[in-house]
Design a protein that fits this description.
By secondary structure, the protein is of the alpha+beta class. Helices cover about 55% and strands about 15% of the residues. It has a five-stranded antiparallel beta sheet, sandwiched between helices. The chain has a four-stranded antiparallel beta sheet with strand order 9-10-8-11, sandwiched between helices. Helix 3 packs antiparallel against helix 4. The radius of gyration is 39 Å and the shape is elongated. The N and C termini lie far apart (about 90 Å).
Length: about 500
């Protein structure tokens, strides 16, 4: 056998063997005494043996194929069918309707054919003619082969009958969803068998490609087993869930006494530096009233303020009768980090990330609202456009980190000036814009401009080489225009007049 053939066999048959070995071991160890677990493990083991047979058959001489197919491949294929029906009847609880003398023996009647074939050497269920194509030994797709496939597929379809019956009788939504999940798995398996059992793909696929439906079969079975959870140790199961939950969980009585708490609850109360009594006192009256009236609380968001720390919580409650006394399950989910992230995302949608000032879109929206209000109230608004002089030279000589710091200084200066009667924003690059409400005269405007320059000069003292200054242009509503864009254009023209040196850079252009 060549290395290439060995590697192909390892991929096509070795990996499925490992998969079924894992499935059989995993499900069996989940509950060694439960019939359903044992049956699924045996199904996986039988599929494993099918792939072992094919692994061997494609390495030995073609003359052994018929014997291996009869004594090994077909035998375990029939056994899989028997165990499959046994499992489904047990799983769906339909087995209880069968007489004791029939269950589970009825499902294993086909094993008689297996024994008969092994004893007599007769072949009742498998192909007897094979051909070599490339590295693979394929069964010849004759009438006997197609008849065998038709019977196998019909049996697979019969698997769906107990599932549909059990689903129709189920009164529990979760259980019906499990049956739906399993029906989907078996349906996919049947479709796979039809496609890869009837169509000969030549040497593009290994022989009997339909047996790979066993991977689908076992995969869905295992998922269903895990979802259904047949473990009987309920106290251990829920104790683990209680201990492992990332949310703080408390069990308290109506007198407010904590009967039990999980590790996450201990960690939470340590983080907020509170005990439960203090925490309960800080909760709003709606929550307390709901608990008093035995009302469930679901997804209730509340903010806890303590020690100058803001904590955002989701609160859930439910009730259980223990020792003839009503107790409350109190579930607390700390969503502070998620809430802060949401708020930051929302903030950055309307603000510049570097300066934390409003961005162009948000500023224009606010400006439109202010201009509309000014029209109705006959107010004057002064619009300022501000640009940094020699900013590119600063970036080139001192680096972009220094440039970013200067932009933050300008933003801080504008925030201080507009704190009570205006809004400032960053348009982009080294350009800023702001407006002042209720501006009454040029004298007031000049005072604002001087304040901007003073604040900026005070904060920018360490950036003297090259010297940084501001160019500012101002327009007025409604004297200069009633239109927003026209006001911006007028202020922009005045600002660039200053930059071109029509006035001294230290002067203000109004």
């Amino acid at each position: 056998m060549t290395i290439n053939k060995a590697l192909i066999l390892l991929f096509t048959h070795g990996l499925p063997i490992l998969f079924f070995m894992y499935i059989a071991t995993d499900i069996f160890l989940r509950n060694k005494k439960k019939t359903e677990h044992i049956l699924v493990s045996l199904i996986a083991l039988c599929y494993l043996l099918l792939f072992v047979e094919e692994y061997i058959r494609n390495q030995v001489s073609i003359e052994y194929s018929a014997r291996l197919s009869t004594t090994w491949f077909s035998s375990f294929g029939i056994i899989i069918t028997c165990i499959g029906f046994h499992f489904l009847m047990k799983f769906t609880q339909l087995a209880r309707y069968l007489p004791k003398y029939m269950y589970p023996y009825t499902f294993y009647l086909p094993v008689i054919f297996v024994v008969y074939s092994l004893v007599t050497g007769a072949n009742l269920t498998s192909a007897q003619q094979f051909e070599q194509i490339g590295m693979w030994i394929y069964p010849i797709y004759n009438a006997n082969y197609y008849l065998t496939m038709a019977v196998a597929i019909s049996i697979n379809i019969l698997y769906l009958i107990p599932l549909f019956i059990a689903k129709s009788r189920s009164l529990i939504k979760e259980q019906r969803s499990i049956y739906n999940f399993l029906i989907i798995g078996f349906t996919i398996s049947v479709i796979w068998n039809v496609i890869f059992g009837y169509i000969h793909f030549g040497d593009a696929l290994p022989p009997y490609p339909y047996i790979y439906s066993g991977i689908i079969w076992c995969f869905f079975l295992r998922l269903t087993m895990k979802k259904h959870d047949f473990l009987n140790l309920y106290d251990k199961r829920y104790e683990k869930l209680f201990e492992m939950s990332p949310n703080a969980i408390l069990l308290i009585n109506k007198r407010g006494e904590i009967k039990n708490s999980n590790p996450s609850a201990v960690k939470f109360f340590d983080s907020v530096e509170l005990n439960f009594e203090q925490f309960y006192d800080l909760l709003n009256s709606d929550i307390k009233e709901s608990i008093k009236n035995n009302c469930n609380i679901n997804h209730y968001e509340t903010v806890l303020e303590h020690n100058n720390k803001r904590t955002v919580l989701l609160i859930y409650t439910n009730y259980v009768l223990l020792e003839n006394e009503m107790h409350v399950f109190f579930i607390i989910q700390d969503i502070t980090a998620q809430k802060n992230q949401q708020e930051e995302i929302y903030f950055l949608a309307y603000h510049d990330s570097l300066t934390r000032l409003p961005n162009r879109r948000f500023f224009y929206k606010i400006l439109d609202e202010e201009l509309e209000a000014a029209k109705q109230n006959n107010h004057i608004i002064a619009l300022y456009l501000i640009d940094l002089d020699k900013f590119k030279l600063l970036n080139d000589t001192r680096g972009h980190l220094v440039g970013d710091e200067v932009l933050q200084i300008v933003a801080q200066s504008l925030l201080e000036v507009t704190a009570n009667f205006g809004v400032a924003a960053r348009l982009g690059g080294d350009e800023f814009i702001m407006f002042i409400n209720h501006s009454l005269s040029n004298q007031n405007t000049e005072q604002v401009l001087q304040q901007i320059q003073q604040q900026f000069s005070k904060l920018v003292t360490k950036y003297v080489n090259p010297p940084i200054s501001l160019s500012i242009g101002v327009s007025y509503f409604p004297q200069d225009s009633n239109d927003k864009q026209a006001l911006i254009n007028i202020a922009d023209t005045k600002m660039y007049s200053m930059k071109r040196g029509h006035v001294e850079s230290t002067q203000l252009y109004i």
